[in-house]
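Q: Convert this sequence to structure tokens.
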Amino acid sequence: MPTVLIEKQTPQITVLTLNRPERRNALTIELLSELNAAIKIASDQPQERVIILRGAGAAFCTGLDLKEAADQTKAHATAEMVANTLIAISQTRLITIAIVHGAAVAGGAGIMSACDFVVAAQRTKIGYPEVRRGLVAGLVMTFLRRQIGERNMRELLLGSELIDADRAKEIGLVNRVVAQADLMNEAQKFAQSVLQGAPGGLAQTKRLIEELWSSSVKEDVDLALKYHMQARESEEAREGIAAFNEKRKPSWAEL
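A:
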């Protein structure tokens, strides 16, 4: 069973569905590899204009699969795949629309944030609890700093509490909040609006938005990857991930 489903809605619109519902679409090397490949295939099609990204089951995506993340031999591969995926989503010439429901947490919130538009279902929970696992939300911070003010970013990253979709819209993380049944309809409205624009004009506008920043997404992700890996290889990360998998509170004081 593929971990990313590909559906052509029209010759111009592709829907990609994260397909690990039994694990709330937690990110593995396999899923990230398939998602990268699907984005590349869509981007290479001249007629393609829009990607809609969603999650199967009860949640959009709850971040790294911490069972796989507990394997230190896979830490570098996982981190690099997350980095590559965020870059692929943010730098594709296509317009990307995330439709999120249930939960978009940690790396899942990062994937959401890398998209051009976000439509969230009411009662969706969004957040970055990495520090509670001994990790650093470095990779997703690249996109947070472009979308919300520093005070809100500190609240999300240092407080690490999940927020609801309405609060996420208030601070600029999402564009629209609708009933879950209306998610695809709302995404289609964005898609149809985008399709009124010239393909070249849209691609150049996306490129200019990127170039107006003093540093590129790639430069920011490379710096963030260094901090992410320092945390991934720490005793705190081993304890935090083990505590999550064992369903207990981490023992920071003993480290």
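Strands lie at 4-10, 13-18, 50-55, 95-100, 103-105, 117-121, 125-127, 163-164, 176-178.
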